[in-house]
Amino acid sequence: MSTTETAPLDQSKLDAFVGRFLGDLGTALHMPTVLVGDRLGLYRAMADGDPMSPADLAERTGTNERYVGEWLAAQAAAGYVEYDPAAGTFRLPPEHAALLIDQGAPVFIPGAFQLAASTVKDEPLITEAFRTGEGVAWHDHHPDLFVGCERFFRPGYAAHLIDEWLPALDGVEVKLRAGAKVADVGCGHGASTLIMATAFPESSFVGFDYHDASIETARRSADAAGLGPRVRFDVAAAQDYPGTNYDFVAFFDCLHDMGDPVGAAQHVLSTLAPDGTWMIVEPYANDQLEDNINPVGKIYYNASTLICTPASRAQEVGLALGAQAGEERMRKVVTDAGFTSFRRAAETPVNIVYEAKP
User: What is the pLDDT of residues 111-160, one digit of tens each?
Assistant: First the structure.
């Protein structure tokens, strides 16, 4: 009779992993409290930076003092607010307020957590997709995904698109200032389209997305911005959106989500003017998995598992590039479609901007 002995565990590794788990669990439970603070205006009510008690905050926001007291304790434990034990008061530092209140800041935390919260609500759909191999289409996700994506991505686009990304492209900024014909494909709620249209009043813009509910939201935003006939939004997929001779086509954080990215790239090529430019904004990724084992990779691989790969698998071809495809895989997609020029034009810690030309 043989026995199998279990190798002894390395206690230091075990302790380190428990610590990592406790941090992850705390973050997971902290996430909905951030959304509560965002939706009830609790952070906004603390924006002046003055110390306040739970009673003060409850009075300012018309909420229940006991709940607010527990919420403030949770925010203090998470390091989001400061606690003065002598006075029994809480304070939101201005550096934290900038990321929790200002939707124009480079990072807007509640938007990111709203996006993340949607994946928890959709977990049963993803689990079933693992069993069947089928996809989960973008429109089948919880609506918090659509809103959260806009609130998370828009600040980054606002911070970098006009001042950094477009100037890094060959001749595009000059064309936009003079008056260019632009298509923003996979535009979602239209944040990127409206940022460009506001900055370049001589150019005309059309945003395309297959998701009709997102297009309706984009149209309302365009009306509210008073951008008039220069901007329109239409329902269309990346493989068949209408129009030709576009001076500039943009894809923001969406090419890797597509079932047939090569087919989409071929369609872009067929719609560009001979001297046109395609800008592809993608999540930051190195080519090798081992080089993406970092905090940014943790975010994107999880998002890819829960959102991007299922979205691609729900479409024709289902190539499933994933959110960490890397430059070489993106280059292959673009050049396989017939583009002769492809380069990395700009980058941030969370995005890479590619330029493709016919």
Answer: 999 999 999 999 999 999 999 999 999 999 999 999 999 999 999 999 99
Greatest Cα-to-Cα distance within the chain, rounded to the nearest angstrom: 85
Backbone angles phi, psi at 203, to 5 degrees: -100, 160
CA–CA distance, 4 with 57 (Å, rounded to integer): 60
Between CA 264 and CA 210 the distance in angstroms is: 13
Number of domains within the chain: 2
Examine residue 5 and state whether it is found in any structural domain, yes or no.
no
Tell me the whole-structure pTM to 2 decimals.
0.93
Domain that holds residue 337: 109-357
pLDDT in tens, 3-44: 556 788 999 999 999 999 999 999 999 999 999 999 999 999
Say whether both 114 and 95 belong to one domain.
no
Same domain assignment for residues 232 and 95: no
Within 13 Å, how many C-alpha atoms sit on residue 307's CB side? Answer: 29
Question: What radius of gyration, in Å, describes the C-alpha atoms of the chain?
Answer: 23
- Cα 240–224–118 angle (5° rounding)? 65
Residues 153 and 206 in one domain: yes
In a domain, 190, yes or no: yes
In a domain? residue 7? no
Burial (CB count <10 Å: 0-12, 13-18, 19+), residue 34:
buried
**DSSP-derived secondary structure for 288-325:** SGGGG-SHHHHHHHHHIIIIIHHHHHTSSS-----TT-
Residue 326: name the closest of 279, 265, 285 by CA.
285
